[in-house]
Amino acid sequence: MDTLLRVQRFEPTVDRAPKTQEYSVPFRDGMTVLDAILYVKDYVDHSLAVRFSCRQASCGSCGMKINGVPRLACYTQVADVGGREVTVSPMDNFPIVRDLVTDLTGFFEKHKEVIPHVVRRDSAEMESPTSDYLMKPEDLERILQFTYCIKCGLCTSSCPTVATDSLYPGPQALAQAYRYTMDVRDEGGAERFKVLDSAHGVFRCHYAGSCSAVCPKGVDPALGIQLLKRHVMSAKPPRGPGEGARTSKP
């Protein structure tokens, strides 16, 4: 049994509009959508452009729309999305580089805007540590699921607010803002709130929930955003300088 693979093809410097090209791919048990695409690239059409790396749902490189839903191609089984007919296209809300490859530059810039790392006032101690910053198990549990983000962009691709507001940070960045703001070792909440509590900030989220529905790692960005709204409404960062972090001296 062969699978009919429909691929959206588009070269922005040459084509006026995207077109769909069809390929017949021999089906086998356990075949992923990425396997089918690479069969085409290896044996049928070398010009097909696709981004991939780890092939085990860890790097997030192969994000695309599969039968209309943002998914990871390396994680999605052909048999689970139709079997006989599979349609792939690039993620929405990203510029197309070529075919299935999108430009994630803006996505990572918005990620950087929320300061996605632990910030401490004692920068000298961070650069040359003499002790450890400790975290209780319950403090880790509060943020653990948000640390699973692999930055695949699927949540951003599915977000209706991103589609209408180019300045909106997006669900990935906001969920990570919550992750670091709630980290008891962090003292950077005040800086992050300059981005979060703005006209294009966290309250632009209308809680469609589509970001959480497509997340391959169960991060639940929509939950992180709603919890972040609560802290922004409190009119102060949830963590002040030095709050929560305990230091272990050698």
Brief account:
With 250 residues, the protein is an alpha+beta fold. Helix content is 32%, strand content 16%.
Produce the secondary structure layout.
Elements: E1 2-9, E2 19-26, H1 33-43, E3 63-66, E4 69-72, E5 85-89, E6 96-98, E7 101-102, H2 105-113, H3 123-127, E8 132-134, H4 137-143, H5 154-158, H6 160-164, H7 171-181, H8 189-196, H9 210-214, H10 221-233, E9 246-248
Parallel strand pairs: 1-5
Antiparallel strand pairs: 1-2, 3-4, 3-5, 6-7, 8-9
Helix pairs in contact: 2-7, 7-10
- For the record, give the distance between the C-alpha atoms at the N and C termini, rounded to a whole number: 65 Å
Query: Percent range for helical residues?
Result: 25-40%
Largest sheet: 5 strands, mixed
Give the CATH superfamily of the largest domain.
Answer: Alpha-helical ferredoxin
CATH class categorisation of the largest domain: Mainly Alpha
Sheet-strand content, in percent, reads 15-25%
Can you tell me the overall shape?
A: elongated
Strand order across the biggest sheet?
2-1-5-3-4
Briefly note the CATH topology name of the largest domain. Answer: Fumarate Reductase Iron-sulfur Protein, Chain B, domain 2
Order of helices and strands: EEHEEEEEHHEHHHHHHHE
Secondary structure: number of strands = 9
Number of domains: 2
- CATH architectural grouping of the largest domain: Orthogonal Bundle
Question: How many helical stretches?
Answer: 10
Give the structural class: alpha+beta
